[in-house]
Write a structure and sequence with these properties.
This protein is mainly α. 56% of the residues lie in helices and 5% in strands. It has helices spanning 28-39, 50-70, 80-100, 104-124, 130-144, 149-155, 177-200, 215-227, 234-241, 245-248, 251-263, 275-284, 286-293, 308-312; strands at 207-212, 296-301, 319-322. The protein has a three-stranded mixed beta sheet with strand order 2-1-3. The longest helix is centred in the middle third of the chain and has 24 residues, at 177-200. The protein is globular. The protein starts with 27 loop residues before the first helix and ends with a strand. The model is unreliable at 1-24 (pLDDT under 50).
Length: 323
């Protein structure tokens, strides 16, 4: 194939072949490079599909538009900043590993789609820390350079070309599991609220109360997250758990949670936060959730309520009452 400049026509180089319409008016070369990197691998033959190439061209244009809008942000430091920073450095590590294994598809997926989704979520959550945003854009441009050099250089605002700059290095100190678990809690809560609203058939809920789990359940889940790595035998785990006096007096409730978790370990959160940490996360996200669902949102600790929904709350999974 040959491509000459922006908005160029793409046609087969061999004589007699039919010309292919111009599917990519801008970033023509970049869209082609991303197409071949993401749709296959170095050892796979690729079949030309114009509509698919157009999809990648649109993806590049979305990235350009997003980065331009990011540069207009001038907000203050927020809790969500730690999440974005952690995600970016985790992706950096994964991308480096993918490049070591010549896994171009994984490299492209993380760089052009996963990071795009993360940054959009950051903005949606009210993030706008200018210093952090500039750092993220700089890293993002570097990650895009191997596959889409024209786009990365166009988005670059530094005096030095991206192509001659140092490759960004993942910093373990900036990978924050608690920040990622906190944001996972917010996203899970949003999904749960939507399900409750749908099941309740309320067109416009007036109030949503979120119940944060009782303190003893966090201690139990912390124990289970350790014991489950040793055994999944219900009897053995229960014996270990009931050595704690506080768990012994709650025998029936403890047994129910232990049995449920051992049958489906995914019910344990990625990382068990404390009750105080979950309260801080949800209070920070309270205004965001209220805006998302156009109703009042109240955050309550389960011990402070007698409502049955409060008793259903678990670490990583709030109880929800919609009115």
């Amino acid at each position: 194939w040959w491509v000459t400049g922006k908005g160029s026509k793409i046609s087969k180089s061999k004589g007699g072949a039919e010309p292919i319409p111009d599917a990519i008016e801008k970033y023509g070369v970049d869209a082609m490079r991303l197409y071949y990197a993401h749709i296959g691998s170095p050892h796979t033959d690729i079949v030309w599909e114009e509509e698919v190439v157009l999809h990648y061209k649109n993806a590049l244009e979305r990235i350009y538009t997003l980065v331009e809008s990011l540069r207009e942000l001038s907000g203050k430091k927020k809790m969500i900043d730690a999440w974005l920073e952690s995600r970016v450095h985790r992706h950096l590590k994964q991308i480096y590993q993918a490049m070591q294994r010549y896994e171009l598809r994984e490299l492209a997926s993380l760089t052009y789609f996963t990071m795009y989704d993360d940054i959009r979520w950051y903005v949606r959550r009210g993030g706008g820390n200018k210093k952090l945003v500039e750092e993220v854009i700089s890293i993002w441009c570097a990650l895009m350079n191997p596959l889409t050099p024209h786009l990365s250089e166009e988005l670059n605002t530094s005096k030095e070309l991206v192509s001659v700059s140092s490759w960004p290095t993942a910093q373990g100190s900036k990978m924050n599991l608690k920040a990622e678990a906190a944001e996972e809690l917010v996203q899970a809560t949003m999904g749960s609220i939507r399900n409750v609203v749908k099941l309740s058939k309320l067109e416009k809920p007036q109030k949503c109360t979120l119940f944060i789990s009782e303190q003893w359940k966090y201690e139990l889940c912390n124990m289970l997250s350790k014991e489950i790595k040793v055994t999944r035998n219900v009897g053995e785990v229960m014996k270990k758990v009931l050595e704690q006096e506080e768990m012994k007096v709650r025998g029936k409730d403890v047994s129910s949670i232990v049995t449920s978790v051992l049958k489906d370990p995914s019910k344990l959160p990625m990382m068990v936060l404390s009750q105080e940490e979950e309260a801080a996360v949800l209070n920070d996200a309270q205004e965001f959730l209220a805006k998302e669902f156009s109703c009042e949102v109240e955050i309550t600790i389960a011990e402070e309520s007698q409502h049955p929904k409060a008793k259903l709350a678990l670490p990583g999974k709030v109880g929800i009452l919609v009115e």
